[in-house]
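Listing S7. Sequence submitted for prediction.
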Amino acid sequence: MRLYFICEFSPYYVALVSNEMDVIVYYMDDFTIHTAPLLRRMPSGLPVQTIGYSSHKRDRVGRVFSSFNFSFILSGGGTYHFRGEVLPVEAPCVITQWPGAPMDYGPSGRWVHWEELYLTYSAAQMEELARRGLVTEGKPLWPVRRDTPLREQLALLFRLLEEGLSEAGAPERIDRACELLVVESLLGESRPPMGRDEAIIRTIRRHVQEHYLEHHDFDALARTHGLSPTTFRRHWQRHVPVPPARYVMQLRMREACRRLVETDQTVAEIAAALGFDDPLYFSRRFATMAHMPATVYRRRHVMASR
């Protein structure tokens, strides 16, 4: 696995774009990393067993785990069945899986998938997790009302993974980064609700994420939510580090990446499906943002998946 953090959208690697107010991280490749076997010379007392990421988790999980797990739901939503209760799940939030307890969770309703990062710990670590205040009996799920610090910590974790597991001190740093990720999620639950302007921008951004193939008149969207176009763009710039039109383009290119790898559609068919009248224009935009032609992207990823 190779992860590259760059300050430009890249559908082949990982793109990290951040500012003081928000962090948007595009993880283009799903992965599972088993960190349990790594040697810790300065153990933290909470060695993480596995770190995994799924960008479009579609299937529900129904099983009994032998480990204790944290699942960070970064986008999307669904339901979580826990000890006879059906709990609604809506990102950003954290759900937990307890050892020995039947689990049933996953996307449902209006969400066909969700984005998830998960951490697993040995059941033997339950007492230590509780001692540090990271596990509370009767608290299987919590919302993250202010998720900027969480996403900044998430970006740090991915940076550490990018540097490599064989680097001196890497396992120790990763263990501590994972613990801080849980801490930030818990602190994020108690932070005050977001302000009106941030709430409006998040609502508009969520609408764009769900309808990224449509044409968006952002001035009209702003007025619908009680903002002037000038005020909207000022708030958008504060909370989202790329302009609205570029944000839409990034979402379309992300879908293009998926189709190139997961379908047999031609480049021209993908361009048309994503709303591009001119396949040559699509190809130029893809090559600019991905740093390689669409055909090269497909060849590399299809070969890598075999």
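Caption to Listing S7: primary sequence and predicted structure tokens for the chain studied. Confidence is low (pLDDT under 50) at residues 1-28. The radius of gyration is 20 Å.
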